[in-house]
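Obj.: predict assembly geometry.
Materials: sequence records (below).
Method: joint structure prediction, all chains together.
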Amino acid sequence: MQVGVIGATGYGGLELLRFLYNHSEIENIHLFSSSENGVAFSNKYAHLRKIIDQPLQQIEPEALQKLDVVFTSTPSGVSSKLIPEILTERVKVIDLSGDFRIKNAEDYEKWYKLATPPQPFLHQSVYGLSEWNAEEIKKAKLIANPGCYPTAVLLSLLPLLHDHIIDSENLIIDAKSGISGAGNKPNANNHFCETNENISIYKINKHQHIPEIEQAMSMFAFTDHPITFSTHLVPMNRGIMATSYAKVQNGVTESDLLSCLHNKYDQHPFIRIIDDASKISTSQVRGTNYCDIHVNVDERTGRATIISVIDNLVKGAAGQAIQNMNLMFGLEESCGLKQIPIWI
Amino acid sequence: MQVGVIGATGYGGLELLRFLYNHSEIENIHLFSSSENGVAFSNKYAHLRKIIDQPLQQIEPEALQKLDVVFTSTPSGVSSKLIPEILTERVKVIDLSGDFRIKNAEDYEKWYKLATPPQPFLHQSVYGLSEWNAEEIKKAKLIANPGCYPTAVLLSLLPLLHDHIIDSENLIIDAKSGISGAGNKPNANNHFCETNENISIYKINKHQHIPEIEQAMSMFAFTDHPITFSTHLVPMNRGIMATSYAKVQNGVTESDLLSCLHNKYDQHPFIRIIDDASKISTSQVRGTNYCDIHVNVDERTGRATIISVIDNLVKGAAGQAIQNMNLMFGLEESCGLKQIPIWI
Amino acid sequence: MQVGVIGATGYGGLELLRFLYNHSEIENIHLFSSSENGVAFSNKYAHLRKIIDQPLQQIEPEALQKLDVVFTSTPSGVSSKLIPEILTERVKVIDLSGDFRIKNAEDYEKWYKLATPPQPFLHQSVYGLSEWNAEEIKKAKLIANPGCYPTAVLLSLLPLLHDHIIDSENLIIDAKSGISGAGNKPNANNHFCETNENISIYKINKHQHIPEIEQAMSMFAFTDHPITFSTHLVPMNRGIMATSYAKVQNGVTESDLLSCLHNKYDQHPFIRIIDDASKISTSQVRGTNYCDIHVNVDERTGRATIISVIDNLVKGAAGQAIQNMNLMFGLEESCGLKQIPIWI
Amino acid sequence: MQVGVIGATGYGGLELLRFLYNHSEIENIHLFSSSENGVAFSNKYAHLRKIIDQPLQQIEPEALQKLDVVFTSTPSGVSSKLIPEILTERVKVIDLSGDFRIKNAEDYEKWYKLATPPQPFLHQSVYGLSEWNAEEIKKAKLIANPGCYPTAVLLSLLPLLHDHIIDSENLIIDAKSGISGAGNKPNANNHFCETNENISIYKINKHQHIPEIEQAMSMFAFTDHPITFSTHLVPMNRGIMATSYAKVQNGVTESDLLSCLHNKYDQHPFIRIIDDASKISTSQVRGTNYCDIHVNVDERTGRATIISVIDNLVKGAAGQAIQNMNLMFGLEESCGLKQIPIWI
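Observations (raw structure tokens):
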């Protein structure tokens, strides 16, 4: 396979390379950049010295036509303009931006403050939540790869919502993320001295991942209540923990939640149900495509606490994108992604 | 004033010294230890070299009798045995452990798995939440200094509960703490490599601060619903952020919450209401006795998100203890505590 | 005393405020800014809410004339232009930039790549290494406050060089600093994800603190060999450790080094000689004006390893500046600076 | 190939698994433990759930006889007793402890304070510095895998010493390491709050890696001067930077150093010479077997500053061990080790 990456210089793009480089079915990786073509990639990123020394190429139709799949790891607002030009008969596209995730144009414009992508492309795009939409993904030409927070939240809550084990009203989701989620552009919110030794909260009830989560809950679990969703920044590079709170339905116990999750996920290689609360933490999945889930039901309150962790750059971005590529090309779902977490 | 500290070698005890050392009304600080008496304190803690070089003293009645106030920064289960021996006509005691916080013996035994302290002492102890219990604190002989999480949670929620602005049912509290909250005894949960670059969750719905929070909500806001309470460890030394979620009463707006908080706290030196969500974070209060509070009401869900931050070792322990001492001795509430946060 | 701070929005300026705020001899602090005047300071820095709410003032001669002392915490190249305008009969100036540190114009221009300040001002400026230049400082109108690295290096090496205990040839100095030394302007070198979990080295043998160190060694210890000097960035906010290597003179032992240091420093409140190698670390001095020093002599090689630690923002900047102010105004040297390190 | 790991529960052992798991020539990994046999490995280490669920086996001769190679990742003093029992005609052993590194029994006993291993085994052991001892490694039955500091130091200095480009007298080596180098046993030196936001120095001129470095310099570069060697702990999980200082021989320039290094290493896949000083840092090699080297010559002093970085757990332990296994079994040197660094 011939693979292209547009936007390889961002954190998501670099992470794509980390996995594509060892993917057994990939013959060549072509790197594209709008602004830095001609530059040897390892001049910019010395960690790639002696590994990926090739130059960045210009984004040109001819070069792209010869590829089998292109990953667009471009900012929201850019992908929607770029993809209509590169999506051809031959080329499949996996978009890591938010542009094609929201089906409702009004919602997209409200939460993203950007113009919605052209309808035909939006229409044909398939939401790439691998464990929930595999059949559609296999047939897709254009994948809207899920956001990092939605991936963590949906993988843990969808089975329980789908099976009516937890109440879809009054869902509270408190998410915590490492700093890499905010990208590599320097600003006061990622200055070391101002993020280190600090927890902050941002975009309270305003995060653009809210409509994505609600849309997927409606699509896969047929619920339609608005969620309360908070995002926090904690001083570490990688990792998301989503702690969700829901009323359980009458008589439901912790083991009902566990059964539901095991039923859904035991055959899926990347989802792990963790019994022991002391073993659910972001370092358990670091650097890999795993999503770990733990549940607790409190009899005093009749409420469940549901915790999931992912590496935001892997299962929350590049890893799931490659998982989707594998599905689209009929490969083993975990091809190129079988790695042991870099726990410490 | 002659002041004693029992348990000066723990993180809470060291933090007491940091503030007592510059307190204008204190003449002498006497340090006591059950196990390490005779040792020059600065031999153990070199950061005190040339500052506090005196030896640790044995815990003896005669030495304690001459003091005006003793801080007991001892583990739960130890204070309850120690305090009956040192509380005399003359000596006032401020206990930083959990032993005298829970009035109901059954609750204490259930959550702490320890025997409750002798009733007469438990009965006379006063809960030291400075901004809510000042009149009782001023008359007290024995203060049960609040826990770190309860302080952060109660200061932000009590005004809103008391004034019926938020719904006391279905309170969800998601708290995040730095590692110092777990004490200075080395174990796998505070090993650098296993806590760094990691978020974990612990004691889900089992934390001994739950009955303390519920008791204070009942005492000061007359509510009696069980809370859902989660505690997370994030990789930093100090700081607690408590993110709380509640339904607002019909028609209530964000500015109603703000008014309520300003009414309650504008005259209190250590509580600050922060308008700008991007300015509420643990580093804003680091090293000081401040508690910052921010609120957000989401019209889509009718739910409020209420955020408070403290330094767990200061307002959550040593600082509030000294604030209580000031109240007990008729001093200015902020005496010895007026410091600018060590923001970076 | 009426005190002014120009450049209060930088890390050094903020740290000045942290100490000046509790300084018993200061009546008022006036904050000046060239670009942000009129802004309430605590709107920009929420950690100052309810503490320093006054607006930033414009830098105007009339306002400055009424002050007793002005701290200029401005970038190099700015102070040299500003100070000639504010230095009057009445006003004393303490400059925290590098502009007045290098007496030799050629050296300044070579290492700073900036035009040297006007000669008369350069000539009257006094190098503010408090423990070594107190008599001159007491008489000074204009202080060139030392750089952070030079402070750590000089305090540990000067006594040993002065007394010919170590060899001034072949001095190797390997310094490590927290990220705050690089200032608060966001760039790739202080992006959290790229500095966290990382050690880097910068300005190898090119740091502008090299001529400052060599000049002071010549001035106070009468040596004149070029030094080898490396600076590393380590993932923490504050702190400098300088590890220096020198041949010891024939027959010199570890206890000779210790005696020399004790002789020089035992009467100085902020310099501490640490016997136990396991107790010399940057956290031992965090947030305070202390400089801790440890020495080791290796008989196998006849070489000494000399370690010193400071808080780069305190003894390496704001703290030493206030110590110099105290000396200039005949106050107790440690006035406003007696604090216990915030060890954890 | 059938591979065994003894001591899989330590950081080095876990890292071996991370690479062996994806090694194309390995059929089975057998995990042994003296104390925890029978326990499912992923019960202890949840990051291995769904990956390595097999139980730990008892260390028994029969089980070990059937293996092709055994990695002993056991403490110093344990390997020396264990290896004589497992080294048979069939089984090759790669020892990650320090036991077989020091050929001189007296030196071992002096620096390690332990009894030296039996002479015949010590005699047949081969020092596993892959890039310098490949021919011996290929023929070896027992490998003494190098220490983490020696690997970083020797790879950068040996070419320059061997070719007489730098002076072997007066070598100063200032090394900095992440906390994982100290192992996973909790103690005050790896407690999060006491290592975070802190640099410390330890074992000044007393580190047991000193005789290992000196022995290898003698063996490969024929020099015999004692070195000055300091080790610092910096607050991060992984990574070593060694900054070394040496006089250059008369007339030698920076480009002479570069030529020497390129000549030696251009054909070696894991050694990279980095031109740009701003690109030499520990994160550039994180999680991988690379060693990056940068050099600087200061004309003012005639001294070279030589910097090298490795991941202490990979090139400094598990990665080099696997590289050595590849050499011993005639495989491609980089088999199983071709990974892109996890830069952020």
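Conclusions so far: The longest strand of chain A covers residues 240-247.
To do: check interface contacts against the pulldown list.
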